[in-house]
Specification:
- By secondary structure, this protein is mainly alpha-helical.
- Helix 1 packs parallel to helix 16, helix 5 runs parallel beside helix 16 and helix 20 packs antiparallel against helix 21.
């Protein structure tokens, strides 16, 4: 007996089968309701501008401002070279360029596309849920997914659009596969072609789509009810999965050729120079945050970094909650494999989709980003939908008051999630709003002060910017970039006596900050410290980068030493140790 047959046996929770005719609701009106919830949760972001990464990837990226040669997008990195070329998402850059041209560079078009895509993602999620769950359970899952506040960053921030396109590809492909294979029927040629096409296009929107074959294997193991022998099923599935593997290999080959590196991203400062085991320990401490955001995202943040989140590379008592969460989740999955396979499938889905973003196999530039939880939340809401559907069936013969109370709980969760999402969308209005909110909500996050300081320096509010960056340094002393940035600001203000210690501290942490070394040499030249300038220029030449600049500065120092009879200038400019207030 299964839930689709109206049964309430615990052993049947989350079983798979065709949608029962006795199911009490029609799916089509509820698809419209889910679309309306998604629209209500996202429409408040329609007047957002460009914020955070939007500035560098869209506003300040000339490649996005024309469509004269769109094929060039496939030969270039996602991030502009001036920001440090990394990642490879040519289809995302292409659609950004298309929207820029259509809208004349106005953010309205981008946000309209984001909202339409989010509604589409929610409807696709409901369509997938209908292939797996009874209509009641699928509807609960779809409603909660549409209202989920953790999706705000993927919708309210323009560059979150890559997540939405990727989710469309993965959800569409998986739903096609489940529909074709749910009753054990062979995968038809049209479905196979559609899935492969979605996979190929999705990969070029965002690399996380690469996990699709693993999701389809999970479908085959936990969802498909096929009476044929395993050998026959394996032969059939292997041929199709091999085609997907070839597509993934081709994508990785192109990506590596463009980026000259398979990873193509700079690791978060907390992950630099760590082994895979140490990275796993770091992420273990963040597991409760992942779980909270997937199941109860009452508080949201634009960034999760030290010292707002604690980073441990070896054993610490703060790792215990993460260990318990992982252990309990694994135990629940094992229990559900027989009793509720769709709960197990939901957990496995979330786990697979988290693999590219948990910084263990491949370190990324963020420890945790809410936008990357869009796809993992599909699995979480499928599991919740199974539980919700089971409770509804349990209440089939219960008093009317109990049924109304249960419906009220679901409605309250949907309304609360929608309201929270709608309110949070406004946080992504512009850089001022994002950074000021982050600094207020997470005052111990070094990146919040670093980002706010950058904004203040751009606004020529030097004293306030210096204060924010010095706070960032105090919160994460081992982050070289902010030290080099502060030193650069000092040098621009001709405060080289103050800049030099910051340059040296940054280079002690990361000797490969070659621009910082160039500026360090320039500071020594400005102060007339010819011997030190020549020595540092020689060090820079040894690194093999910026050789013309170092050679020129060494020649300047040599000439000055000859002119001054090999002595440094004796005078020293008196400088303050901070930006003076006007």
């Amino acid at each position: 007996m299964s839930l689709r047959d109206g049964g309430v046996s615990p052993s049947a929770i989350g079983t798979v089968g065709p949608v029962g005719a006795d199911d009490p609701i029609d799916w089509r009106p509820w698809a419209v309701v889910i679309a309306c919830v998604a629209l209500a949760a996202s429409i408040t972001g329609i007047h957002n501008g460009f914020a955070y990464d939007d500035q560098w990837i869209i506003v300040q990226n000339a490649r996005v401002h024309a469509l004269r040669a769109p094929w060039h997008f496939f030969t270039e990195s996602y991030w502009p070279s001036v920001r440090g070329s990394s990642l490879y998402r040519p289809m995302a850059i292409f659609v950004y360029a298309l929207q820029w041209v259509v809208g004349g560079g106005q953010p309205l078009v981008f946000h309209m596309v984001n909202i339409v895509l989010y509604v589409t993602v929610c409807v696709l999620m409901y369509w997938l849920a209908l292939q797996l769950l009874p209509r009641v359970a699928a509807t609960i899952a779809g409603l909660l997914f549409a209202a989920h506040p953790v999706h705000v960053e993927a919708v309210g921030n323009v560059v979150g659009q890559a997540e939405l396109w990727a989710a469309c590809a993965v959800l569409g492909a998986t739903a096609l596969y489940v529909r074709a294979r749910r009753d054990g029927l062979p995968l038809r040629g049209g479905d196979a072609t559609g899935i492969a096409a979605l996979y190929a296009v999705g990969l070029f929107f965002k690399e996380h789509v690469i996990v699709l074959p693993a999701l389809l294997i999970a479908v085959e193991l936990l969802v498909v009810q096929d009476p044929r022998p395993w050998r026959e099923r394996l032969d059939e599935s292997a041929a199709f999965l091999l085609k997907l593997a070839l597509l993934a290999t081709l994508f990785l080959a192109i990506r590596t050729a463009v980026l000259v590196d398979l990873v193509g991203d700079s690791p978060h400062p907390s992950l630099q120079n760590l082994s895979m085991a140490q990275s796993a320990v770091v992420m273990l401490g963040l597991v409760p945050e992942f779980g909270r955001l997937l199941l109860w995202p009452a508080r949201l943040y634009a960034d999760y970094s030290p010292a707002f989140v604690h980073v441990h590379t070896s054993w610490h008592v703060e790792l215990v909650p993460g260990i318990l969460f992982v252990g309990c989740t694994a135990l629940l999955t094992l229990i559900c494999l027989r009793r509720a396979p769709l709960v197990a499938f939901g957990i496995v889905w979330s786990t697979i989709c988290l693999v590219p973003v948990v910084n263990i196999l491949i370190p990324t530039g963020v420890l945790l980003a809410e936008r990357t939880l869009l796809l993992p939340s599909v699995g979480a809401m499928l599991a919740v939908g199974v539980a919700g559907g089971w409770m509804v069936r349990r209440l089939h013969h219960a008093p009317r008051v109990a049924k109304l109370a249960a419906g009220g709980v679901v409605a309250a969760l949907v309304v609360a999630g929608t309201a929270h999402s709608a309110e949070r969308q406004r946080t992504w209005r512009d850089n001022d709003q994002v950074f000021e909110t982050l600094a207020r909500d997470a005052p111990l996050n070094y990146r919040s002060h670093y980002a706010l300081g950058s904004l203040l320096f751009d606004q020529r509010r030097f004293v306030e910017g210096e204060r924010e960056w010095r706070t960032a340094i105090a919160l994460l002393p081992e982050y070289a970039v902010v030290r080099a940035g502060l030193a650069h600001q000092y040098r621009e203000a001709h405060l080289c006596q103050v800049a030099i210690p910051q340059f040296r501290a940054a280079l002690a942490i990361d000797p490969n900050l070659l621009v910082a070394r160039v500026e360090l040499v320039a500071c020594h030249l400005e102060l007339g410290q010819w011997h030190t300038a020549r020595t540092e220029a020689r060090v820079g030449i040894s690194y093999g980068s910026n050789r013309p600049a170092y050679t020129f500065m060494k020649a300047v120092a040599d000439s000055a030493l000859v002119a001054n009879d090999s002595g440094d200038a004796t005078h020293r400019r008196k400088e303050t140790h901070h930006f003076a207030r006007p």
